[in-house]
Amino acid sequence: MKKLPSVKAIMAITTILLVNICSVKTLDGTRSLNNSETIIPNQAVFMNKISNTKLLKDKKANAILAINEYTNKAVEKEAEPVIEKPVIVYDGMTLEQLAAKLDKNLKSTLKGYGMVFAESSIKYGVDPYLALAIVLHETGCASGTCSSLAKQCNNIGGMKGSNHCGNSSYAKFKTLDSGIDAFFKNLANNYYKKGLTTPESIGKKYAESKTWASRIKYYMNVIKNS
Known about the structure:
Blueprint: H1 7-18, H2 43-79, H3 95-103, H4 114-124, H5 128-139, H6 148-153, H7 176-190, H8 199-206, H9 212-224
Helix pairs in contact: 3-4, 4-7, 5-9, 8-9
């Protein structure tokens, strides 16, 4: 720490500064009596003022440094780019990647519905490859032209219901989106929740054909490798 000026030096400087000053307020609160009177402040008061002034200056300087350091750190932290990790939803893919993969296998009436299928599979917890494979088999969309049941009644899974599609026992849905949702809901509630999650176990209840499971597995492989 630097030493303070000597008392003699302080007295000399103070004397020069205060000579011939009118009504100058002294450090201890008294005032000069006339225009030429020299006021010599009390030594203890003067030294105390100097020490306090230096202390306040040091505290202020330290406070400013602390604020600047905190502000700089905050600005640097705010400026750092936030890198969000991609959310994997299925088979090492993000939702967008899964949708694009599924869309590659959707043709005719179902073309462009990859995201709807992807979101529905996540929503109901159903294997998207398995679900789409059933749709491709039931609607014939894999060949490029979907069945009339899919086109006219938005029924993509060969589901039956009370709201008949024409004179058939198959269900009719108002929109393709509602038909897709109903299909996934049916798989989730009537198959997955009962432990039927493979082509073989689903096929025993879903279809009468003995080759149904093998066809579904074939389509699943096509979709996975697309």
